[in-house]
Amino acid sequence: EELAGASLFISREQLPPQEDGYYYGFQLEGCEVYEGGRLVGTVRQLAEGKANPYLEIAPPEGGSDILVPFVGDVVLKVDLKQRRIEIPEGFLG
User: According to the model, what pLDDT value does residue 75 have?
Assistant: First the structure.
């Protein structure tokens, strides 16, 4: 009862490794998103949607965030070492 409502924190180093194809949201923050060879923007965060999580992407020229579903048909590749995410060419129109 003493701890009811309390927050629990651990360091990132203490998190268990994710299986291939799974990521912690903080790992995606700051990654650049490319549609084909075109830079779409930089990931602000991975947010939870009603059906699927989605990436909130800040475009390089400013303006409204771009929302992209974080699902296998849309996110073709995630390269954490290169800090790069690829989506299908023409997906955003």
Answer: 96
Q: What is the pLDDT of residues 31-74, one digit of tens each?
A: 999 999 999 999 999 999 899 999 999 999 999 999 999 999 99
Whose tokens are 């303006």? That residue is 63
The Cα 32–Cα 58 span in angstroms is 9
Burial (Cβ within 10 Å: 0-12, 13-18, ≥19) of residue 5? exposed
User: Which residue matches tokens 């939870």?
Assistant: 48
Spatial CA neighbour of 57 closest among 39, 40, 78, 71: 40
Pick the closest to residue 28 from 71, 67, 65, 79 (CA basis). Answer: 79
- Rounded-to-integer distance, Cα 7 and Cα 13, Å: 18
